[in-house]
Amino acid sequence: MPGFEVFGDEEKKEVLEVFDTGVLFRYEFGPQRGDVWKVRQFEEAFASYAGAGYGQAVTSGTAALKVALAALGVGAGDEVITQGFTFVATWEAVFDVGAVPVFTEVDETLNMDPADLEKKITDKTAAIIPVHMLGAQARIGEITKIAARHNIPVIEDTAQAAGARLGGRHLGTFGTCGTFSFDSVKTMTTGEGGMIITDDEKLWRAMSEYHDHGHDHAVNPGGRGGEGRSFIGFNYRMMELQGAIGLAQLAKLDDMIARQKENKAQLKAAAAKISGVTFREILDEEGDSATFLAFMLPDRVQAAKVNEVLRDNGAGAINFGENTWHFYPRWEHLLNGSTLCRGGWPFSAHGKRRVVYDPDALPQSADIMNRTLVYQVPVKLGEEQKKTMLEALARAAAL
Ligand SMILES: *Cc1c(COP(=O)(O)O)cnc(C)c1O
Hints:
The protein is of the alpha/beta class. It is 37% helix and 13% strand. The chain has helices at 9-21, 30-33, 38-50, 61-71, 89-96, 114-120, 140-149, 201-210, 240-250, 253-271, 300-312, 332-335, 363-370, 383-397; strands spanning 54-58, 79-83, 100-104, 125-129, 155-157, 165-166, 169-170, 177-181, 194-198, 278-279, 292-296, 348-349, 352-353, 372-376.
């Protein structure tokens, strides 16, 4: 999965071009930087690769979500719907703009269940964030249709699915906007970093200004210091060094996915021999970024038995039902309302609890997650590692 597996001379060359100018900042320094604008180039290249009109680079995938929500005007008093199987960042961003996250069930795509989404929409729903978890598609067609009927914007959290497609179209381009992460474990990485893509020029301008303290980026005689402001912002600016790495990594993305697909196919063929096994529903195999292989057993007890054999043979799988970073009932800080804030924000406001989360609220998701086993698929699957994994799967198949 991670792009750091293929770091090479390409990344070094890009980074050195930045050091040669001495300009690490994405704005200003015109004469000194020559024609080197790495972050701007990376934005244009990433948007063009994905087939979107505009790209906005930011400091992280979490910042991408925050900036997208802020640009859409989401804040206190609003609800934002996402799914109960995701990384904590998705709902941290929702709380950070002052809104309250609402969680849907996932179905066998391991992503948002559209039927449950429909049930959770209220007058307060200001945005919907489906997540393309583990490299593959949410039911984005159905989700955007429901959202359009209620006139609610959709932010696709595409942090784990850069380069993945549905029917040939890139994930992240179906909704109002799509957000990406380039953190150290993502398919393409800039160490830390994120991106938002959209076709909406007005929305992109709002993001661009918000992420840079409200700078309107209008050309004026006073330069950057003479720029105006239309609203308050924050600082989520990406560095030139990150933009440089991003350019080199983006050029390798399709190749990384192709190699993952080969590796995934071999692991999947071996897993298919396990008695009672089924696989995660992938809406478009061709468009899968193949960063993960997810397979299901008929129940939690059998999943545990299979995983015990895999573990004993040096190739234990992840059970996200037990993983504390990605699944709703395991987020004790969310369930307990743990916060540093004296007033209890964001769980409480004005001395009153705004929201309480019931650990048993997502039974359908719990059933699925508890019997699902997951392997991360590396770009480079070494012979030794492959042998271990295939042998462990064969042992599980002999159960
Ligand atoms: C990694 C991730 C993020 C956050 O990205 P960072 O760059 O680490 O802030 C958001 N959503 C999902 C689903 C992720 O996997």
